[in-house]
Write a structure and sequence with these properties.
11 strands; globular; about 290 residues; Rossmann fold; 5 helices; two-stranded antiparallel sheet
Length: about 290
């Protein structure tokens, strides 16, 4: 059953570091929605709408390095319409507004923790507390792919062979990886403890622009996961790294703004219609 969509602005709070960052949550509602502007996007949603009286699974979406948690609103809106609570945290220090931690060890350590903090925030919120189930899935794009693999039990290492201490979360039931950054899981055994269903979609024309880049990132996951049958891996023909971001408004689409660009002949709007359905089908089957 397709629902209307509500949205709510929460925060993830790291008390140890005395920092907080935005957490946008979209969810199914019975209240008819109207077009609303969130960041640069227009979506059909109502602020603080009443949530449907059902028990609902939770999905967390992790954005890429230097990106925005608002970059996946079409995915979030679609999943919310179809019965999911979808939370999108902004990763502190590695986002569009503040990217001071990009490339830092602290960023590798903190990103997985943000996943747990986001889950905690959803479970503790008065609107969602009575409606959430214990079923949880994570979606990660680019650096978000690193994030969700680490949160789900992966043990990352730096290029200088330094073990990265990260916080794992045992509440996670399934992962969706979109053009994931995986190089921190190069050593043997790094994904031995990631034992859950994975849908991995890579882009034919991912960057760095080297032959077979998409294959190497995918193979790294496939080769490190012990139960290969739990991994569904596909290459999206003619897609680029940014093709997994929601289609941008015309006012933001420009050859000079790389996140808005795709390969010649690639239709991002049409692709996202199919992407939404594929993600939903995977989640429906696995959480």
């Amino acid at each position: 059953m397709k629902h209307y969509v509500g949205h709510r602005h929460l925060k993830i709070v790291d008390k140890e570091r005395s920092i907080s960052s935005p957490l946008l949550v979209m969810y199914p509602s019975y209240e008819p929605a109207k077009p609303v502007i969130i960041g640069p996007y227009t979506v059909e949603s109502t602020l603080d709408a009443k949530i449907i009286k059902e028990r609902l699974p939770v999905v967390i979406i992790s954005h890429g390095t230097g990106g925005t948690h608002l970059g996946y609103l079409t995915i979030a809106e679609y999943l919310a319409e179809n019965g999911y609570i979808v939370a999108m945290p902004e990763h502190y220090g590695n986002n569009t507004h503040n990217n001071t931690l990009e490339g830092a060890l602290e960023n590798l350590q903190m990103r997985p923790k943000h996943i747990s903090l986001a889950l905690n925030s959803v479970y503790a919120d008065s609107v969602f507390a009575a409606n959430v189930t214990d079923k949880v899935a994570l979606i990660g794009h680019s650096m978000g792919g690193y994030t969700v693999l680490a949160a789900a039990g992966g043990q990352p290492w730096t290029e200088s062979h330094e073990k990265v201490i990260v916080q794992h979360d045992k509440r996670i039931d399934a992962l969706v990886l979109l053009a994931p950054a995986t190089e921190w899981f190069t050593p043997e055994g790094t994904l031995n403890n990631v034992n859950l269903p994975i849908l991995m979609l890579t882009a034919e024309h991912d960057f760095p622009l080297e032959n077979g880049w998409h294959k190497r990132t995918a193979d790294l996951v496939i080769n490190r996961i012990i139960d290969k049958e739990k991994v569904i891996s596909k290459v999206v023909d003619n897609a680029g790294h940014f093709s997994f971001l929601s289609p941008f408004p015309k006012s933001m689409s420009s050859p000079h703004f790389l996140p808005s660009t795709d390969q010649v002949g690639f239709n991002r709007v049409d692709f996202h219609k199919q992407l939404n359905k594929e993600i939903k089908a995977f989640l429906n089957e696995n959480i």
